[in-house]
Predict the structure.
Amino acid sequence: MKAVVWHGPGDVRVDDVPEPVLLRPGDAIVRVTSTAICGTDLHLYDGWLPGMRAGDILGHEPMGIVEAVGTGVSRIRPGMRVVVSAIISCGACSYCRDGLWSLCDNSNPHSESQAALWGFGTAAVFGHPIFYGGYAGGQAEFLRVPFADVGLLEVPDDQPDDSVLFLSDILPTGWMAAANCEIAAGDTVAVFGAGPVGQFAIRAARVLGAEQVVAIDRVPERLALAERAGAIPLDDREDVVDALKLMTGGRGPDACIDAVGLEAHGGGLAGGFDRVRHVLRLASDRAAVLRAAVQACRKGGIVSVPGVYTGTVELFPFGALFGKALTLRGGPTHIPGLMRPLLARVLEGEIHPEEVVTHHVPLADAPDAYRMFRDKTHGCIKVVLDATPAAA
Amino acid sequence: MTPALGGAMLAALGGTAVVAGLRRRGPAGLAVAAAGGALAYRGLTGSSLTDRLVDTRAISEPRLAIGPRAWSLDDDGTLVVRRSITIARTSDAVDAILADPASLAVLSPSIDASDVASGGSLRWRVGLPAGRALDVTAERVEHRPGETVSWRIPMGLLAGTLIRLDEHERVADGSTELEGSIRVPASAARPIPRRFLAAGLGAELQEALRRMRSLVEVGELATTDGQPAGAGRASPIGAPPAFVSEVGGLPDRAVVGVAEQGTGS
């Protein structure tokens, strides 16, 4: 089959690889129809997440048709049209039972490296390095899905792929980022980063009752899309903190969302420090947005972090976090628990995920699509790869 | 000579050796510099770097007797390594796995499945450098369902070592705490520094408990062995399990039966 394979930083290719087989009773094989490139894939593409190995298959936002299931699968049947959760969860451990799906105890067979670095292992993720389980990803014609009863959501046949595909990751991620803000009537939410996750955080914040949502970015088409969703656009090269104070009667946003993560661009001394360490590959994480979010947030507010961080961040203003009594929330999204309720919202017309799609590309053209998405050229906000054999 | 003066002299000597070693360059120079560094460390801190790395004295230093430790040395020189894990099931489910030889066989990557006897005895084959292997057999010496199970290694490098699992059911949420311990007598594995042995056994024990939890909670062990990988890697992460050949390449992509593994749930 064809699959998008990582060969090194900035080098992905479409290779012929063996088709997956069922390896455990709880597995299913999905024939992928659509699969998206995520901002997190760009972190992998650029080599910022540790542990990528040449030959790893990328992709964690797929959907398709179930081709085969193992004997331990009861809820999912061949022929079902399904969306695949990016997060792999067993559904049976104490964390899954408590709804903390992304903290699953049992899905990551290589969790010892996480345990060594973070104290504990967490759930595996498709198309990520061995640090996150090392599962082959979904930018391929076929995908093996462990714990299929938990990670697959059946979707109606009459819904186009674009309207349900993002239930796999970025829609739940944007939603959880906003939900973590405990939005109350009259609140202002500042969303740093108007990429795909930021776009869904903006929409979720509106649905959850925010009176004012501010979208902070520097890419015109992203800001325009955010504005169409009801957000106030703000160029991140402005003095963001002062601008946010101005928009909130001097109080500051009630909550700030960091939808950028570890590859943030920042100015000033701290930004220069980040850049030097990044260029020298002395650090994986640049905390420019995290710093700005802490600085901008009102006293007693919430900073929500859906953006990915993996290592350590320098010059983090912990004094401000403490002194302003801020609450910091984040972590990988509990996707399996959010897919079904969000599908209901999509079917009710409350959210229109297809709005963020700017490009449809055959799987074979994935290398060009990666470059376009990373460089933000051609008005690119979100790329969907067509993995059907005719397109691939 | 006062301790402070002695320490200062040792530090000065060590420092001189570091400088001399670095000037000389080459492997011999590096060795001199490293030795000088160790001397300087001892002179400045009063403790030995090498002792801390390999010797038992460093870990047998008096400590406050507060709470359990992940590893320790008893007064008689027995090394005790402990780990624990919480399984979100009652002890009945844990006991079912502990009574199943096939499940015990997959608790560690180094256990040879074919050598697990029905009586619950275990046999490991531990890989060593230069392609050598160490065979270890452990006989089950105690099994009280819902409470404890233990094995003793009767002979070989680790002779006298006791492996023990203790169950503690948590009434509050119906889960089971499983504490594993390995007790290595002073006479066993003498060539191996205790600190290194403790680290190795601790990692092995932790992985076994993690696998135990997975088998009890979901009836299978997650795996990436046998999955596809692209060009650039010589082979997939690991060889596919034996039963994959029964499934084959899914030529007709129908519902297929997967051979049961582990507990076969």
